[in-house]
């Protein structure tokens, strides 16, 4: 009897160990999947075929989430020519397209956003741009989380609350950035001739950058108020008709181009310009980054490609 009890206890112990082993194995498998999902869902190809319906060769259609997963945005943010393009795309998705993404695409979105924030924290550039992106996303999530139960977000509500807490943490990190003056003593912007300083300022496409630059030094403050500078900025972003509708006179009876600019940006979208963009081949309907080879059957593939703005990219997937 004693031997039987010991044998029974031994079987129970083996059963218990077996259960623990299965649980541990399942947990390791789940952790592995989570770790894999934390990285972007990569495909070997750097392009995607955009199809909006079923054919004999293809079933279903291409979604925004699928394109977002396959076009390697995670690497694109490391390219200075593509960084602003990706950030603008993230902002547009945050405003209106977040719920159209699949669960994997939503996770990819947050992972890419985290990489964007870490890049900005390291190089201390584009801080205001990312602050605005995070605020846009947080505002959208506040609205979506309140509508929980209506299938507007994929995943558990606690997961999204945790993501919102991460956004607040990132915002705090950006607010705490202290930009240090370079240690080297070389030629600075204010050391250059006035004509060169103005030439550099004319290359800034955002009026807020001009205002910030003017706060660096008294000499730059004077240059940043140059009427011709703000006039060219208005003419670059807006049409003559738009400008005529928003005329503002200064106390001296002259057009106040600076005030007009900030009034115009509240009424009309600014002109967007990017160093590199996604492009769509009109011949084979393949979407890819510029300079990426894709299997096109056209005689001259270069002539078939059309550059897409971030908004045009999103419009491709509105059925």
TrEMBL record:
GO terms for biological process: protein ubiquitination. Keywords: Cytoplasm, Nucleus, Ubl conjugation pathway. This is F-box only protein 32. Pathway: Protein modification; protein ubiquitination. PANTHER family: F-BOX ONLY PROTEIN 32, LD30288P. SUPFAM superfamilies: F-box domain. GO terms for cellular component: cytoplasm; nucleus; SCF ubiquitin ligase complex. Part of the SCF (SKP1-CUL1-F-box) E3 ubiquitin-protein ligase complex SCF(FBXO32) formed of CUL1, SKP1, RBX1 and FBXO32. It is found in: Cytoplasm; Nucleus. Substrate recognition component of a SCF (SKP1-CUL1-F-box protein) E3 ubiquitin-protein ligase complex which mediates the ubiquitination and subsequent proteasomal degradation of target proteins. Probably recognizes and binds to phosphorylated target proteins during skeletal muscle atrophy. Recognizes TERF1. Its main location: cytoplasm. The lineage of its organism: Eukaryota, Metazoa, Chordata, Craniata, Vertebrata. The gene is FBXO32.
